Amino acid sequence: MTRANIAAADHICGPAVGSLKGKTTRSNPPKVRDIIIPLPAKVLSRYWNITLCADVMFVNSIPMLVTVSRNLRFGTVEELPSRSAANLVKALTRVTKVYKRAGFRVTLSLMDGECEPLRGDLYDANVTLNTTGRDEHVGDIEQFIRTVKERMRATYKMLPFEWIPHRMVVEMAKSAVFWLNSFPRNNGISDTISPRTIITGQTFDHNRHCKHEFSQYVQTHEQHDNSMGPQSIGALATRSTGNAQGNFYYFSLSTGRIINRTNATAQPMPDDVIDRVQKLARRQKADRGLIYADRNQVANENSDDESDDDESYHSDMDIKSDDDKSDDEYELDHGDDSDANDSDYDPQDEGNYEDESEPDDKPDTGAAHNNAPENQE
C-alpha cells in the first residue's frame, strides 16, 4: 500500500461516510461583509418604469410562471399550484414587489390573450395589462423561456437520472434563471452590471456561489448534540441561495424536500443514490426525462420551437376566474415524502424506504425570485 494508492482510493470513494456522520463538527459560517452595490441614479431615473413580460411554462406537467423585464432583463420563475387567475395574480404581485424594493415600478405587463381575466386585479395594483391577439406572442418572454429550457436541457443531459422528482425539476428551472441573472446580458442596460446586481445589489462570489454543480451528491452538515443521531445527511445540491454566506439549497434524499444548509462535503455518487432518486420520481409518477408542453399539455415535438398556437384558441378559454373553476381541478401531486425525517436515509439501507406511503402534503409554492427571500430566483 503506497501513498498513491491511498490518494486514488480517496479520490474514487471520497471521505468515509461513517466518519462524516459521526465526527462532523459545527464550523462557523463565513463572515457577512457589506457588499451591497448602490444602483446608479441615472439607471434608476431612466428605467424607473418597468415593462414586465410574463407567460406560463410547462415542464413535466408542472406550471411555472416565468417573467422577464424589458431593458433590465431580470428574470424570475415560480412554480404555480394551479393556473387559476388568483394564483397568477398572487405570483405577479410578488414579482412587482421585487422591483418595488429595488426602487422600480412595474407599470405595464405584456401577456398572452389567455391572461385577459387578470386585467381587473392588475389594474387594482396599478399595472396596465396589454394582451396579444390570437396569432401573436410576446417575443421577449418567448425567447427567455426558450433560453431557460435550453439551459435545463443541457443540465439534464449531464445527470445520471432518467426520472427526476418534481422538486428537482423546479429547482433546475430556478437554477437556470439564477445564472442567467448573474451575468450582464447582451441586450441589457449595462455591460458590467448583472440584472441580479441591479435588482438586489448583491454581487457574485465564485468561491461561495459555485461550490457544487447541480445534482452533486453531498453530506450536509447538520445540527447535533451528544446523542447518537447522524451529524450529516445525504442530499443532492441544486443551486445557491444567493446570500452572502454561500448557502445552498439541497434536495434531501430522505424526505424529498428542499433544505437550506451552509456547509456540506461533496461525495462521489454511488448507485444506491441514483436508484433512490429515481424511486422517488417514479413514486410521484414523474415523467421520464424533460417534457416541454404547451398550455393544452401537448408535448412539443420540436423543442426549439416554443410556439403554442392552437387553431381553436380563444382568449377566455384557458385561464379561468375563481368564479368559473376551483383550484382543485388543476392541482398537481408533487409527493414531497414529508412523513420521513431528513436524518433517516442511508444509501446502504435502501430497503427501509420501499414501502413508504405517499404523503398528502401540498407542494411548497414559495416565491422564486433572487432577492431577499432566499428561495426566489
Q: Portion of residues in helices? A: 25-40%
Low-confidence stretches: 302-318, 321-377
Query: Average pLDDT across residues?
Result: 78
| Count of helical stretches | 10
**CATH superfamily membership of the domain at 41-200, which one?**
Ribonuclease H-like superfamily/Ribonuclease H
Report the CATH topology name of the domain at 41-200: Nucleotidyltransferase, domain 5
Tell me what portion of residues adopts beta-strand conformation.
15-25%
The largest sheet is:
6 strands, mixed
- Give the name of the CATH architecture of the domain at 41-200: 2-Layer Sandwich
**Straight-line distance between termini:** 49 Å
Strand tally is 11
Order of helices and strands: HHHEEEHEHEHHHHEEEEEHE
Category from helices, strands and their pairing: alpha+beta
Short description:
The chain has 377 residues and is of the alpha+beta class. It has helices spanning 3-13, 17-23, 41-46, 85-101, 119-124, 139-156, 166-181, 195-200, 206-209, 271-283; strands at residues 49-59, 62-69, 75-79, 105-111, 128-131, 217-221, 232-240, 248-252, 258-261, 264-266, 292-293. Among the domains are: 41-200, Ribonuclease H-like superfamily/Ribonuclease H (Nucleotidyltransferase, domain 5); 212-286 and 336-362, no CATH class.
